[in-house]
């Protein structure tokens, strides 16, 4: 019984973290149709910034992530500008765009290696290594803090997209670019804003990643598959769908790890993805 | 006329000098400078460069300067065969040594064997088991039966406790090194009469280890043996502390706990863990030259984003070059057959002590240390440079203290 309860709690905590990594991708890949394969690389930059500030000034990594996100927003907007000018405007976005983001990923990785070396990096915070007991269930604070921060962030992005004018304009540009243009809004500016927002979330996701475990420059690649899977499973661009998909992936992984053996976890998790897509090709919350 | 003659003589002398200078001994290798093992690969390179500078300052090998030709294999096995082919066919290096780690040593073997090169190798577990190559020399002190020697000390320590523990859990990463280590652990556990109650592997990209540790805890094993790679080792240690793992002996084959950055970060969470190591500051391991070497290494490593203390790999990276260098000097030759024969038949004096290779190119006798973390303070790198923070428990010849048992007091 307590194994069962712990597996669910651990899965939900892990799932919320996956959601934090994938929420930006749900915007870029799901809504803007930009295959930003460099997304996890930006997450790693977020981790490094959290590490640098934490190790020099001792500031909490989550706070560093929040403070760094406006800078990431600007960087994201700039990257989109380059992408738009070079590929999207000329209609070459599909394959060349993919190559572009591959390039961005490599440039980020190599730059981190050249500047900071390849050693693993860690942060220190008072809650790392501590855990609280609630009846049967033990909750490591190292996973609880990222869970809370991730929930606030993904919830915030969801509210922003569904309740504010700009947020709805982002959803609109995803659905019908021409209609948005006819309403007098500039789709390029909206997309630039959305891309900035997506990259902004990576500053926080990166901080959460380095709280959970050590980070080195190429560790982001581990999350490419999971992040894309979560977005596809959630229904390409639906934020609530993405959140449920991330939690599902986390819980399935945790369950299989506990009861069947950790080696099966990714296989079963991706099996669930394939099954879901076979039954609902547009994903959990996708519009058919 | 005299002026012209002098000029001519000077030109000839300069040319001869240039020719001599342009004829160095080239040592080629791939190295894991980026990718998952990049941190250690870079540290190894620093150690090897220190060896090169030391040798060149002392006049080189056979009176010729030593030069390195190396490429980054990015810890990717697929890059390795082409690197060694290029080194041998295009760069025409005189000698080769291996990259760092099992996964990038094994793919070099076919190329190196075809060219019949003597092949000093840096930290591969049981690589030569599959090849049986008589010119392979492994500097890692795993021993003649690397798979079982790797964890022999851990299980001997377990069996020596009173009352003797009964049950064992084995958990390993799904990768060649860890699976080999787990296979050896299984054999050792059975040989010592332990009952294996949990025996599973996990995929390398695992983010959260608490479900794994809970599943282990549910089986209530006395001994937990872990074979893991660096980020996973950190995840496993954190999860064991968070879940409150109640095992009596915990550790074994966790890679990463030997690195200074991990030690500093994990701090008191490491307390009483018994894990393998290759060198720690202890009076029993005070080999001639090792402290001088570490001083140089620590100076060079500053600001390069590599292990700042360099206890684990760098002395061995220096030592495998020493083996090669001493063999070249002693045989006065670059003949690969003669070098290999010499390496098989002689004992080498190195910064990691006396090195003697057995028939299969592994150390003739194992020197896998089992060390225990003791009285670890939080966030203090300096403590790991001192004697006492890591106590050598095994083998008896190098023992520096007694075990604290059980793991959780």
Features:
heterodimer, A: 288 residues, mainly alpha, 75% helix, globular, B: 409 residues, alpha/beta, 7-stranded mixed beta sheet, 13 helices, 41% helix
The pLDDT mean of chain A sits at 91
Shape descriptor of chain B reads globular
- How would you spell out the order of helices and strands of chain B? HEHEHEHEHEHEHEHEHEHEHHHEEEE
Distance between the termini of chain A: 39 Å
**Low-confidence runs of chain B (pLDDT<50, min 5 residues)?**
15-20
Count of helices of chain A? 11
Q: Enumerate the strands of the largest sheet of chain B in spatial order, edge to edge or round the barrel.
A: 7-6-8-9-10-13-14
Largest sheet of chain A: 2 strands, antiparallel
The total of helices of chain B stands at 13
Average pLDDT of chain B works out at 92
Tertiary shape of chain A: globular
Strand order of the largest sheet of chain A: 1-2
Task: Give the tally of β-strands of chain B.
Answer: 14
Explained architecture:
The complex is a heterodimer of chains A (288) and B (409). By secondary structure, chain A is mainly α. Helix content of chain A is 75%, strand content 3%. A two-stranded antiparallel sheet of chain A has the order 1-2. In chain A, strand 1 and strand 2 form a beta hairpin. The radius of gyration of chain A is 19 Å and the shape is globular. Chain A starts with a helix and ends in a 9-residue tail after the last helix. The model of chain A has no long low-confidence stretch (mean pLDDT 91). Chain B is α/β, with parallel strands linked by helices and 409 residues long. Chain B contains 13 helices and 14 strands. Chain B has helices at residues 2-21, 38-57, 80-89, 102-114, 128-131, 146-159, 176-191, 210-219, 230-243, 260-266, 290-301, 314-331, 336-345, and strands at residues 25-31, 66-72, 95-96, 119-121, 136-138, 167-173, 195-202, 223-228, 249-254, 274-277, 347-350, 353-356, 369-373, 390-394. In chain B, helix 2 crosses helix 11, helix 2 (38-57) packs parallel to helix 12 (314-331) and helix 8 crosses helix 9 (230-243). Chain B is globular and about 65 Å long. The relative contact order of chain B is 0.14.
């Amino acid at each position: 019984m307590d194994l069962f309860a712990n597996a669910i709690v651990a899965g939900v905590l892990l799932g919320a973290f996956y959601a934090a990594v994938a929420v930006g991708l749900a915007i870029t890949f799901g809504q803007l149709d930009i295959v930003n394969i460099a997304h996890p690389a930006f997450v790693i930059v977020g981790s490094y910034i959290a590490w640098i500030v934490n190790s020099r000034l001792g500031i909490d990594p989550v706070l560093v992530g929040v403070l760094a996100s406006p800078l990431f927003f600007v960087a994201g907007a700039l990257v989109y500008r380059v992408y738009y000018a070079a590929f999207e405007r000329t209609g070459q976005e599909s394959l060349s765009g993919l190559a572009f983001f591959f390039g961005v990923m490599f440039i980020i990785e190599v730059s981190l290696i050249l500047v900071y070396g390849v050693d693993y990096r860690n942060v220190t915070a008072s809650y790392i290594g501590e855990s609280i007991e609630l009846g049967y269930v033990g909750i490591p604070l190292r996973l609880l803090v990222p869970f809370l921060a991730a929930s606030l962030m993904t919830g915030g992005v969801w509210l922003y997209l569904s309740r504010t004018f700009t947020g709805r304009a982002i959803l609109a540009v995803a659905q019908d670019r021409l209609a948005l243009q006819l309403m007098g809004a500039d789709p390029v500016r909206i997309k630039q804003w959305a891309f900035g927002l997506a990259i902004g979330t990576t500053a926080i996701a990166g901080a959460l990643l380095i709280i959970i475990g050590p980070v080195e420059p190429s560790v982001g690649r581990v999350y490419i598959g999971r992040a894309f899977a979560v977005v596809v499973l959630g229904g390409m661009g639906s934020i609530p769908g993405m959140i449920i998909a991330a939690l599902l992936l986390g819980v399935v992984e945790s369950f299989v790890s506990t009861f069947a053996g950790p080696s099966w976890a990714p296989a079963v998790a991706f099996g669930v993805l394939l099954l879901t897509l076979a039954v609902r090709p547009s994903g959990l919350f996708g519009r058919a | 006329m005299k002026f012209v003659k002098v000029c001519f003589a000077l030109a000839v002398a300069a040319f001869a000098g240039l020719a001599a200078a342009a004829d160095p001994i080239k040592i080629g290798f791939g190295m894991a400078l980026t990718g998952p093992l990049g941190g250690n690969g870079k540290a190894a390179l620093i150690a090897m460069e220190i060896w090169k500078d030391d040798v060149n300052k002392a006049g080189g090998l056979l009176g010729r300067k030593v030069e390195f030709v190396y490429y980054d294999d990015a810890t990717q096995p697929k890059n390795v065969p082409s690197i060694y082919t290029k080194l041998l066919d295009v760069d025409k290096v005189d000698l080769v040594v291996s990259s760092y780690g099992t996964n990038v040593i094994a793919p070099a073997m076919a190329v190196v064997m075809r060219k019949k090169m003597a092949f000093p190798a840096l930290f591969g577990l049981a690589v030569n088991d599959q090849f049986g190559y008589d010119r392979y020399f492994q500097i890692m002190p795993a021993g003649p039966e690397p798979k079982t020697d790797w964890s022999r000390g851990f299980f001997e320590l377990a069996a020596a406790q009173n009352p003797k523990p009964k049950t064992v859990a084995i958990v390993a990463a799904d990768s060649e090194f860890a699976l080999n280590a787990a296979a050896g652990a299984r054999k050792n556990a059975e040989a010592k009469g332990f009952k294996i109650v949990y025996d599973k592997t996990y995929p390398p990209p695992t983010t959260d280890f608490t479900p794994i540790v809970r599943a282990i805890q549910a089986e209530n094993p006395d001994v937990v043996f872990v074979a893991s790679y660096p980020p996973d080792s950190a995840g496993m240690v954190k999860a064991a502390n968070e879940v409150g793992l109640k095992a009596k002996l915990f550790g074994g084959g966790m890679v990463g706990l030997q690195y200074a950055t991990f030690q500093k970060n994990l701090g008191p969470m490491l307390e009483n863990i018994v894990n393998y190591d290759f060198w720690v500051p202890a009076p029993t391991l005070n080999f001639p030259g090792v402290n001088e070497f570490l001083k140089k290494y620590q100076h060079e490593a500053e600001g390069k984003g590599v292990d700042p203390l360099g206890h684990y790999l760098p002395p061995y990276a220096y030592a495998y070059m020493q083996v090669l260098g001493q063999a070249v000097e002693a045989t006065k030759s670059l003949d690969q057959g003669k070098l290999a024969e010499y390496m098989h038949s002689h004992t080498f004096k190195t910064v990691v002590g006396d090195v003697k290779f057995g028939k299969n190119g592994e150390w003739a006798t194992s020197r896998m240390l089992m060390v225990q973390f003791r009285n670890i303070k939080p966030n203090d790198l300096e403590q790991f440079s001192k004697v006492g923070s890591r106590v050598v428990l095994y083998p008896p010849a190098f023992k520096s203290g007694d075990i604290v048992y059980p793991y959780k007091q």
